[in-house]
Structure formats: structure tokens, C-alpha cells
Amino acid sequence: MGPLEYLLLFAAIILGLAVADLATSLHRLLGAGARVAWDWLAPLAALVAFLKIVTLWWSWFGIDKLARGLTWEMFLGFLAGTVLLFLMAATALPDEVPDGTIDLRAHYAAVQRRYWILFAAEWLLMNLLTVWAQVQILGAHFQALSPAYLVLPLAVSLIFVRNRWWHTACLVGLAVIYVGQFAGHALAG
Description:
The chain is mainly alpha-helical. The chain contains 7 helices and 2 strands; from the N terminus they run αβαααβααα. The protein has a two-stranded parallel sheet with strand order 1-2. Helix 1 (3-32) packs antiparallel against helix 2, helix 2 (41-59) packs antiparallel against helix 4 and helix 5 (104-138) packs antiparallel against helix 6 (151-160). The radius of gyration is 18 Å and the shape is globular. The model has no long low-confidence stretch (mean pLDDT 89).
């Protein structure tokens, strides 16, 4: 087992648990059948969390050189980011299926602020860690302007703005970005 596999195994377990939590919550909702009052925002939030996990996992391929230079502090930060991603994924869908109706619109309204705080915290932490590692280990230069940096202000706006259409547009936009980020890329080659 190389350095990358060794270091990322723990993080992969955390992310695997996040996907399992999403799948379990979805399974419970589907099993509840007609008792679920479906709404699009909670499933969209779950989809964005899932795509964020898959995108992170996919990006790990080919970073052996970076993994060899990770410090203890970088690794702890990286693990903290994966825990934030787990918490974000766990927030998207309800964990319990009560005896009565399950209202997904009410669920999203109740958790949207927590979801977006976790999203923003994870995005900020992971991006700061990535820049730190690339500068320290690979000698890369920090790029102050990148379109990717627009994600943080967008996420922060979603913490405070409760407009359902704004949330819908942002969730759909993020899903498109995450799907498109590695579309057509293959691991081999």
C-alpha cells in the first residue's frame, strides 16, 4: 500500500459512510411510499452532496506526489473536511421515518441553514488545504482569481436567503458543475 492509499483509506471510509447514509435515508423514504410529501429541494441537496463526495473521491486519483508530502496538520484538516462533508450529506434527507407524513419541504426548510453552513465550511477548508498543499509540496503559485471561488459567496448567500427558487437554481447549478467537472475523464491513461 502506497502513501496515497494509506492516508486516504480513513477518509474514504468516512465518505463511504456518507454515501451509505444518503442511500439509507433514500431507502427509508421510498419505503414510506405515500406517506412522503415529496419536494425537490431535499433530494436536490442530497444529489449535490452525493456528487460532491464522488467528485472528491475521483479527484484523489493521480495525486500520489501530493500525498507523499502531506503533513500531519494537512491530513487532520483533510479529515475534518471529510467529516464536514459527511455531516452535510447526513443533513440533506431525514434520518427517521415517523408514523405520520414525512414532509420533505418542511425538512429542507428546517435544515437548509445547517446544510449550507456545512457546505461552505467544507468548501473553504478543502480549498484552503488544497492551495496550502500545492504551494508547499508542489511549489505551485496561488491563483487569486478563479471562477471556482464564486462558489463560496453563493453558498453563503444560501445560508441567509430563503427563496426556494434561488435554492433550486443554485442546487441545480452545483449539480451541473459537479457532473461536468470530470465528465469524459477516465482514470486510466
